[in-house]
């Protein structure tokens, strides 16, 4: 959500003034105001993040003044403040100096394997954040548990990788410094790893302890009913985490579970069904309208990885069509009033924390652009 920030506008004007000075050109206050307005317009319209809008504007000015353009900066997100849930709203307290509370939505980016690669020293988590920060995603989805036999590059088992908790604290700090939030699945692949339910619960609480404070979001497991975790309903309520989830249900609808919000992944389609339905799957209307007083009532719902950006098509579960991701992300944004809490994009390479190229980049850009402009 765009919020006018006087300090940011003044800083941009100072950068413009310094650029004129560097070029040895007389400072033109009227023209400088036009350049500043261009920068504000690009950011306010959602076409670019504030950081990228400033960088783009300054480079356009530098080109006009005959100066060398600036290299790409170290990209940062803009997340600050703590989260809480109020009814169907996700709220962000103190997101900017002097601003109290604003509504908040997930603009998510799935990097499941990035944490495991960081634990094993194969890819620094800082590098994995460059691409989503540049595009403007605000929430990074990772997993603290994974089995190599399930297609992951490494096995991450808390019984063996005891250093993962300190690494999680490290990555949480890195994400905070970069201005993005972590959405952390604790017990993905627990079934494949043969981890007992008591051990899963202990791991869950240790993960929540490392994420306490209200900035990051812990979640039990992705697709728990598919065997990734034991019964999600039996996991204990964490302390110090005002926004948390019992995880997504895969092809199963969100269960009434007492968490502060719910997650939903698109239902896998059979051969006779259309590949995408902009109804309950992506609008989250059904669960709040058909059960107005039930256990799902007044629970925001985050739509996680409705469709996976992949090199092949698979009945709506995988696609390489940017317009589909644009439609799904846009639907999540415009159904806030029904409890939609946001959307998370995922692809073959995003899970590894690699920069996206080709159709994957086009799909990611289509999703984030419509999220920024609609939000």
Can you offer a commentary on this structure?
The structure is a single chain. The protein has 375 residues and is an alpha/beta fold. Helix content is 37%, strand content 16%. It contains 13 helices and eleven strands. Strands 4, 5, 6, 7, 8, 9, 10 and 11 form an eight-stranded parallel sheet that branches. A three-stranded antiparallel sheet has the order 1-2-3, with no helix packed on it.
* Rg (CA only): 21 Å
Number of domains: 2
**On the 0-100 scale, what is the average pLDDT?**
88
Q: How much of the residues is beta strand, in percent?
A: 15-25%
Low-confidence stretches: none
How many individual helices?
13
Helix content: 25-40%
What's the total count of β strands?
11
Structural class of the helices, strands and pairings? alpha/beta
Q: What is the H-and-E element order? A: HHHEEEEHHHEHEHHEEHHEEHEH
CATH architectural arrangement of the largest domain: Alpha-Beta Barrel
The CATH class of the largest domain, by name, is Alpha Beta
Major β-sheet, in short? Answer: 8 strands, parallel
CATH superfamily of the largest domain: Glycosidases
**The CATH topology of the largest domain:** TIM Barrel
Instruction: Please state the overall shape, judged from the principal axes of the Cα atoms.
Output: globular
Distance between the termini: 5 Å
